[in-house]
Write a structure and sequence with these properties.
The protein has about 300 residues and is an alpha+beta fold. It has helices at about 5-15, 25-30, 55-60, 70-85, 105-110, 155-180, 190-195, 215-225, 230-245, 250-260, 265-275, 285, 290-300, and strands at about 35-40, 45-50, 95-105, 115-120, 140-145, 150-155, 205-210. The strands form two sheets. Strands 1-2-3-7-4 form a five-stranded antiparallel beta sheet. Strands 5-6 form a two-stranded antiparallel ribbon. A hairpin with a 3-residue loop joins strand 1 (about 35-40) and strand 2 (about 45-50). It binds flavin-adenine dinucleotide. Flavin-adenine dinucleotide (FAD) binds near residues 112, 115, 215 and 228.
Length: about 300
């Protein structure tokens, strides 16, 4: 667990306080609030605050004076309709704020999602902790031979040991030098904003990250996907579990239409129609490139 006893006590104290409210609360999210979910070797993600629930989506869609909810099946049908037809603004009525601790190289991918509000730990103001991401054996893999943006077989034996040794030694040496440069014993000591520049990208940073449900779904669609890098995907997977507890109906629709659904081009749809008529469709007579055909076969599960 990457938390100290003091940090755990702070979280427990926060969870021990309750305040009566007229605002809508989501029982699944109340259970998650403040609790830290460990990710990778030193990372975590936890919910700091949230606004709205499934009913808030329906309320906004119906522009209702009350809660906007009808029967569960009615609400579920409405939410599925909104998701199916890309009617996205009702989902923007729900907001969530996360506290995330993550390696800097993961943060660089994450920050590309511009539709969020971010406040990061300041390494100009504070000294970074000696915490570096070192992949577990099942994440230490070779370059993929079929995907330039991916990894292939696991490294094993001596090679795995050599790579791990390099990662650990480099991290330790960089941090030792960071401390040496900051040191004021008989010297001025280098400014924190400069000393940090020698630290590797596997050092951990932290931020508060706030977004709305529509943009969170967009983030999760890209980052919980198998094509996303493992180290960001594991955060996205925990977030999926949290969102499923928070807005169960909206998450179910998202999992069905976005995570489990596919987009087909007009050419691909034409091929599907021809196949349904019993025609033999091949890449050569499909009108698709080899790459498009491969992905199409993957979608149909016939590759
Ligand atoms: C598997 C994978 C591989 C990737 N590889 C690379 C890579 O090699 N190199 C690289 O640089 N990036 C890469 N990315 C990052 C990717 O290009 C996007 O920057 C990232 O996924 C954020 O997506 P987004 O812009 O849709 O999200 P957000 O920034 O959250 O934006 C959400 C949506 O809001 C709209 N929007 C937001 N800001 C603007 C704007 N200023 N103008 C117009 N519309 C806007 C767009 O519709 C956008 O889709 C990769 C991402 C993935 C998932």
């Amino acid at each position: 667990m990457p938390l100290t006893q003091d940090q755990l006590a702070e979280i427990e104290a926060q969870r021990g306080q309750t305040t009566p409210t007229l605002r809508a609360t989501a029982p699944g999210m109340e259970n998650r609030l403040y609790t830290a979910h460990p990710v990778l070797d030193h990372g975590l993600i936890r919910v700091i605050d949230y606004m709205g629930d499934d009913a808030a989506i329906c309320q906004a869609a119906r522009v209702s004076y009350g809660t906007g909810t009808k029967s569960v099946s009615n609400d579920e049908g409405l939410i599925r309709y909104l998701m199916r037809h890309w009617h996205s603004t009702p989902f923007e009525m729900c907001e969530v704020k996360f506290h995330v601790k993550l390696p800097v190289f993961v943060a660089r991918q994450w920050i590309r999602h511009r539709t969020a509000n971010v406040n990061e730990y300041s390494a100009r103001y504070s000294i970074l902790d000696r915490e570096f991401y070192i992949p577990a054996p099942d994440a230490l893999a070779a370059q993929s031979t079929v995907n330039n943006q991916g990894r292939g077989e696991l490294l094993e034996g001596e090679e795995a040991a050599r790579v791990l040794d390099i990662l650990k030694t480099d991290a330790a040496r960089a941090y030792d030098n960071y401390e040496a440069m900051l040191s004021t014993e008989g010297q001025k000591g280098l400014a924190r904003e400069l000393a940090r520049m020698n630290l590797p990208a596997n050092i951990y940073t932290q931020w508060y990250w706030k977004t709305d449900l529509h943009n969170l779904f967009h983030f999760l669609r890209l980052r919980a996907d198998v094509h996303a890098q493992y180290e960001i995907r594991v955060y996205a997977q925990v977030m999926c579990e949290i969102v499923a507890d928070w807005v169960p109906l909206a998450y179910k629709a998202f999992a069905d239409y976005r995570m489990g659904g596919v987009n087909l081009s007009a050419t691909a749809m034409d091929c599907v129609r021809r196949m349904l008529k019993g025609e033999t469709v091949t890449q050569e007579n499909s009108g698709m490139s080899a790459g498009e055909w491969r992905e199409f076969e993957g979608v149909l599960g016939s590759g």
